[in-house]
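Worked Example 4.2. Consider the chain below.
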Amino acid sequence: MTKQDIDLQKIQVLESSYQGWFNFKASLVAGTIVGTIILIATMQYQQIVNGYGVGVGYAVLTLAGFYFISGMKKHMKNILVLSIA
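Applying the procedure from the previous section yields the following structure tokens:
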């Protein structure tokens, strides 16, 4: 194997490691979002919260989800750029 082939394999192993980290974090965020949506919908169905509380809950959940996802995407992009360079 040439030096270039070895370097490419190292990059591939590093990338798969980071992809596993990203998938783990993404599944936590997705699970939190789905769980919170179910919680808010259940509370609305049982009339524990009113429409205003549901709207605020969904808005906070949406903003937090976008914040975490954009942070993970930015972190993943930086790692991949650094590992290739």
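Residues 3-45 form the longest helix (43 residues). The chain is about 90% helix and 0% strand. Compare this with Example 4.1 before moving on.
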